[in-house]
Design a protein that fits this description.
By secondary structure, the chain is an all-alpha fold. The chain has 13 helices and two strands, in the order ααααααβαααααβαα. The protein has a two-stranded antiparallel sheet with strand order 1-2. Helix 1 crosses helix 11, helix 4 runs parallel beside helix 7 and helix 5 packs across helix 7.
């Protein structure tokens, strides 16, 4: 009975992070759609990154001050430095590198390199001893093979096209009525061989930056386990960095005007949902299951973006996208199976230790009770002596 309860608790403990990460990827997929519409309307994407992090700071900072006012640990210099790195790697640097790589190469190439996040995170997590390879166990093999299968599916999803088809026609096209953007962020006329090579390095740098954020976030969560406060620090640091960068690059103040249009909606949604609440959820998942668990859900957003683009942007699906999507889901399932097996193993070991050493556990509890009782008796004797001294002094 106890073994069944431990297994059910392990499954419940795994399902909550899974549902959380699926919700996060849905939010990321919606952000990608809005990014595309905003870029097509002519918005400067560097300014969009700055506004996105500013909106996130405006929402998350008050929530952190209210919800974690009594549980927030002391803010040290080490935590501030980690927050600066999180704002750099997870906010300003990764987003701007992604955009610059998109300008110098192509959206297809950047999407392909973004699917390397699980592999890069896996290597970094092993290097920083946040994950164990454990190839001798079935769980370790499943995690490794699942990561490789997911990356392979993402590559097939991106590069292999095949016959094209539509799911169904919704007669909805969000890009209809927008003119193509003339800003450098959407122009392909400046691409060259040297620019393509530079863009390749920038896109790869974006992948490394995002993976590095997951590693630093895992370290920060141990020292500062307040998800709203850590997200608020990330947003503030990232907004300062991104605003400074955008001001250095874009001097035309007319580009900073938003108005009541898709530009404002994209910046507000990206800041409140993606850079705000979703980062809170990811911080919680990183603390519960580690950076590798979070990274393996990244290719899942490709499938969601493809479906949403087909329904809302009149884009067609291809045979390669369907086959790659199936491999992504299979790889994700293998990693989750490995995680659940590891959790069950840990719970079984804990239960076996409790069954093998019940007397030691009872002895430890009795010793704790004895120490508490002794402490109370000493405090009582001390207070009595103080009362007697006070009475003698008064006499």
């Amino acid at each position: 009975m106890r073994k069944q309860s431990s297994e059910s608790s392990a499954v419940d403990g795994l399902m909550k992070p899974v549902i959380t990460m699926v919700i996060a990827q849905i939010a990321y997929a919606a952000t990608s759609i809005f990014y595309k519409v905003a870029a097509d309307s002519g918005m400067n994407l560097k300014i969009l990154v700055a506004y996105r992090l500013m909106f996130s700071s405006a929402i998350i900072v008050p929530l952190a001050l209210i919800l974690e006012r009594n549980s927030r640990p002391k803010l040290t210099l080490v935590v501030l430095f980690q927050a600066f790195l999180c704002g750099l790697f997870g906010g300003s640097l990764s987003e701007n590198l992604f955009i610059e790589g998109l300008v110098l190469t192509s959206p297809t190439f950047v999407a392909a390199t973004a699917n390397l996040i699980p592999a890069v995170t896996f290597i970094m997590a092993i290097s920083f001893r946040l994950e164990k390879l454990a190839l001798g166990s079935h769980a370790g093999k499943a995690k490794l093979v699942g990561t490789v299968v997911g990356i392979g599916g993402a590559m097939i999803f991106t590069f292999f096209k095949g016959p094209e088809f539509s799911i169904w026609s919704t007669h909805v096209d969000l890009l209809r009525g927008h003119q193509a953007a003339t800003s450098p962020s959407s122009s392909s006329s400046h691409r060259s061989t040297g620019g393509h090579l530079l863009g390749s390095f920038l896109a790869l740098g974006s992948v490394v930056s995002y993976a590095m954020w997951l590693i630093v976030q895992a370290k920060m969560s141990k020292r500062y386990p307040c998800h709203y406060s850590s997200t608020a620090l990330l947003s503030v640091m990232g907004s300062i960095q991104s605003v400074a960068f955008a001001l250095c690059v874009e001097r035309d103040w007319s580009q900073w005007k938003l108005g009541w249009n898709i530009k404002l909606f994209t910046a507000a949604y990206g800041g409140i949902m993606t850079s705000g609440m979703v980062v809170v959820l990811i911080s919680w998942c990183v603390r519960k299951r580690g950076p590798l668990f979070v990274s393996v859900f990244t290719p899942l957003s490709l499938v969601m973006v493809a479906i949403a683009s087909s329904l809302l942007l009149s884009e067609k699906l291809s045979l390669g996208s369907v086959f790659g999507g199936i491999l992504i889901v299979c790889g994700l399932y293998m990693v989750l199976w490995g995680q659940s097996k590891e959790m069950k193993t840990i719970n079984n070991v804990t239960d076996d230790q409790d069954r093998q050493h019940p007397a030691a556990a009872r002895l430890q509890d009795s010793q704790i009770i004895q120490v508490v009782a002794t402490t109370r008796s000493v405090d009582t004797n001390t207070s009595c002596e103080n009362n007697n001294t006070t009475n003698v002094g008064s006499i």
